[in-house]
Amino acid sequence: MWTNFNISYPISTYQVMFTLTDLDLEYHKVVYHPTMELLNTNLFCPIWSRSKVEKFIKPSGVMSEYILHSDWYRKISKTVTCIEQLAIPTMPVDVMAKWRLILYKESLVTYNEETDSSAQERELAHTVAHGMVHQVIDSAITPSWWSHLWLNEGFAALLHVEILDEIFLKWKFVDLFVVQVQQDCLHLDTDFTMKPLSYEVRTPSEIKSLFSFPIYIKAPVILLMIQHIMGKEFQDIIKNYTNTYFRKSPTPDDLWNMMQVNLDNPELGNPTMKDIMENWVRENNYPIVNVRRTELTLEISQDECINEHYQQKALQWIPITFTTWEQLDFDNTTPHHWIPPKDSTKYNISISLTNKNGWIILNLQQTGYYRVKYDNKSLNAITYYLRFLKYIDIHVLNRAQLIDDTYYFLKRGEVTYDRFLRLINYLREERD
Questions:
Q1: SS3 helix, strand, coil % of the chain, rounded to 5?
Q2: Where is the ERAP1-like C-terminal domain (predicted)?
Q3: C-alpha distances in angstroms, 3 versus 18, 101, 354?
């Protein structure tokens, strides 16, 4: 039996994949679904599976169509071509995506509306979206060396969440990402237990070590922070990046060169995006921002702490966002100020307050990869507002952040149990 393959454009050898199987797989086309009327079925991505799961594989076909027509997907995909998708019951990994071919673990892309939970439906959405976005990113751009692999993996992990958030507003995929991925990353990236995103590798064993937690969870978290630093320009930058380096091998520096940051403070100089990102990428751990207040003045500084192994943490360029009890503006997540990687109090941020009993909350929607440590007076003011006034005025991600950060400092013995218990007392009213 002969099989004919069309001629492909030059691609990296690690993008070549074909499948040989003794499974009897059938092509399943979505016959009808209400959402299909809104879509151009010429871009349909076929899904092959066993005939016994045909009924349960159809939601994955609909999901593929949604993703193909999302704004984000169209921005990162230079050419929209047919993608073959296979559901394999014995897949050793959840998803494997290469050029125009995606393999899924069957149990993750089947859904029974009568018996499966909404959590299984969300898992299906995650799996299909991650496979399709990973296929687009890796097919378009090849890292110049293994040390830069984190950028492709990070884009695939972040952008598939952004696409799902665009399609399914009610599920709040980005909010779930912050709580489930970013907060887990903060706990794992403590006391130097996690390697940096990028470091020199030469041997096969060193290259293999790259495929660990940092590349899959910290990379998208750092890119989320960059997304909010750049604001509305981020989508166009990514589109420009994928178009400019289509079928090429760029380095992270090529991406940084497409980004311009205005710190709006002559004392901080004029750092490039490469300057800002250097320590975030090449150092492990994360910074802690201290908030200390007097009567009507707030001091914000970077913690120059040493861990329990007597190792000095690398100082970072930290994007600072905040709002007050008067403003209640949690949506402006582009940096209001920057703390530079310098060990001088000259570079602390001072903010004037109009009320000695009011509060200020930093790191809006937890878009920055750092923890915030409030002094007792600041934490008491926030706690009072949550418990006795209108807790819903504070963004849900900042409510989650306050609890997670305070619990972290509780474990370090820097916050008392009494203060932590008073903070979480409002949870009896929480509905989100």
A1: 50, 15, 40
A2: 359-432
A3: 12, 16, 75
Count of residues making up the chain: 432
Tokens matching residue 324: 């007050």
Is 308's pLDDT higher than 70? Answer: no
Say how far apart CA 325 and CA 385 lie, in whole Å: 9
Q: pTM to 2 decimals?
A: 0.92
Q: Are residues 28 and 134 in the same domain?
A: yes
Does 341 map to a domain? yes
CA-based radius of gyration for the chain: 24
- Dihedral sign, CA of 398, 399, 404, 405? positive
Tell me if 155 is assigned to some domain. no
Joined tokens for residue 94: 């959840």
Q: Tokens in use for 128?
A: 């299909």
Cα torsion angle, 63, 68, 74, 79, sign: positive
Residues 292, 425, single domain; the answer is yes
82 in any annotated domain: yes
Mean per-residue pLDDT of the chain: 88
- Is the same domain home to 276 and 295? no
Name the helix (H) or strand (E) containing 80.
Answer: none
